[in-house]
């Protein structure tokens, strides 16, 4: 419904993202999160076990969304060149559009407890494997030239993830501009004809 207020859980997640982005996980208190959400500090614990639980939820949702977009890019074509274009376009644009959340998802991992970190690492391994599969398929089809598909896949993912570190909405480029340029860079990295 237009103009509806977000529910308490959504407000807390949004407030946690903004607070973690501004002060880092360890510099943020539950009071900071509650205040940013327009709620009492006790409200955080009504919806989440801890500040770490909020971070885990943000990280899990972010990694699930990223894995889906990578899988959609891979499924978009049987051609490794087109797969790489689709994956890099979606990946770079996603990290630009959601740069604040993506910084939290990718750069606050050390604050997760062991169980949560193990789960997030599984998502990250799956994302890496999908990218590696694309690069390996391109090498096998003789359309990519790289001596190390695994390292190349990691470099491609790092390129996209790093957008969240430097991108700001008021900058010179729209997410689509970045996505287009990163596709060009990705294809050059794998030695594909453009």
Helix coverage percent of residues? over 70%
Instruction: Give the number of helices.
Output: 10
Radius of gyration: 18 Å
Overall geometry: elongated
Biggest sheet descriptor: none
User: What value does the average pLDDT take?
Assistant: 92
Note poorly predicted spans: none
Got a strand count? 0
Structure description:
Residues 6-66 form the HTH tetR-type domain. This is TetR family transcriptional regulator. Residues 29-48 bind DNA. By secondary structure, the chain is an all-alpha fold. Helix content is 75%, strand content 0%. The protein contains ten helices and no strands. Helix 1 crosses helix 4 (51-75). It starts with 7 loop residues before the first helix and ends in a 5-residue tail after the last helix. The mean pLDDT is 92.
């Amino acid at each position: 419904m237009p103009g509806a207020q977000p529910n308490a859980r959504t407000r807390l997640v949004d407030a946690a993202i903004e607070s973690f982005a501004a002060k880092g996980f360890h510099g943020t208190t539950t009071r900071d999160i509650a205040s940013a959400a327009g709620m009492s500090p006790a409200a955080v614990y009504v919806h989440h076990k801890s500040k770490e639980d909020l971070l885990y939820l943000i990280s899990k949702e972010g990694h699930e969304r990223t894995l889906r977009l990578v899988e959609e890019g891979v499924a978009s074509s049987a051609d490794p060149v087109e797969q790489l274009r689709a994956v890099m376009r979606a990946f770079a644009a996603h990290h630009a559009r959601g740069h604040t959340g993506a910084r939290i998802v990718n750069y606050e991992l050390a604050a997760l407890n062991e169980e949560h970190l193990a789960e997030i690492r599984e998502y990250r391994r799956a994302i890496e494997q999908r990218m590696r599969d694309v690069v390996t398929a391109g090498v096998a089809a003789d359309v990519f030239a790289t001596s190390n598909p695994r390292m190349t896949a990691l470099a491609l993912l790092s390129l996209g993830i790093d957008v969240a570190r430097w991108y700001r909405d008021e900058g010179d480029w729209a997410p689509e501009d970045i996505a287009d340029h990163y596709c060009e860079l990705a294809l050059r990295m794998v030695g594909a004809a453009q």
